[in-house]
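Aromatic hydrocarbon degradation membrane protein
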Amino acid sequence: MKIIKALLVFTLITNLVSAQNDTSTPYSIFGLGVENKTASGGLTGLGNTGIAQNKPGEINLYNPASLGQIELKTFLYEFGINGMSSTIKTNYLSENTTDFNISHVIMAFPVNKNLGLSFGLLPYTKVGYDIDLEQYIEGSETSYTNRITGSGGLTKFYVAGGFNITKALSLGVDLTYLFGSINQESNIYYESLVNITDENQYRGFKFKTGLQYNILKQDNLNVNLGGVLELPAHLKGNQLRSSNKTLTTGTYMIIESDEPYDLGDFELPLTYGFGVTSTFNNTLTTSFDFTKLNWNDTNQSINKESYTNQSIYAFGAEYSPITKKSYWSNVDYRFGLNYNTGFLTIADTQIDSYFVSAGLGLPLSDRAKLNIAYSYGTEGTVNNDLVAENYHKLTLNLSFIGSWFNKTKYN
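Tokens:
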């Protein structure tokens, strides 16, 4: 019954995750939108590292091999939210925005002492922009205004499993289904109002494998290595377009009504990553991850812009006091750095980003923890008439460890 209740809660939150997806950044106009960069557990406070992390009481979204470490007779579940305040600016103007999102809802449980499973739902990409373009009629000096508004994004549902081959070696697999719609509305103002609405729907599967290996285990030093490989994927796309015109006289005319178009496949690249996590004297843990996305091998193109290979470098450090004499000596203290070269080249400029983070792992009880992380970051540049975004982000992840597989004893 407890599992059924949990699934009902999961279904309810699933509807909330799919229904809301707030963001506001002009770079979400490209491709599938901006990636959801929030991690599970305390990994956001660690710069989004985690390829080699394998804590038994936390769900790791980065490497499914870690699921083999889940303790028997437990059920892990986690819910996350985040809020972000951004300043979007060019050389000429700036604008402040505030966004709020449900970042994820995930669950995991052991099948036996060597096998663990997990499933969950989270935003994969987010789209949100409102851009006014002053354009000229070809062969004329007469201009008109084109207001372009975008919304939506893709949602990720995954099922993953991790298995301990030996005490030192674990393997894992992750099957993900991506689905959702990206909506764009154009309103052209010139002598009349022309409205064009496109609903672009995408869906498809992607597959990831992972491994973790405990290369060194001593009393004062523990070192884990991790690796992940995500195969290229093709998302099917189709578009529903409707358009109409409103004349200055008030006359309303339908030009197209829900006309379907085939968008062709959107290609996701081959991705691989490596990580190393080291724990010193059971108090200080450091992590370093490197991830590569081979966008050059896909056939993606965006007008005059281009996709380019993407590299992500991430570092995290966590301090957990040995003495447990007070509440604050039971808290985990975290710090992280993340640099992303980006996958877009616009005006001969690669749109990169970075963020720094700090976080706390606050115990609420023996089986519940609140992970808080603050991040400050920037994306893009104002050079070459481009756009830069500076943001402050607060992430809250609430995780529980349930004892759901213990048999009830009767006297």
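Residues 1-12 have pLDDT under 50 and may be disordered.
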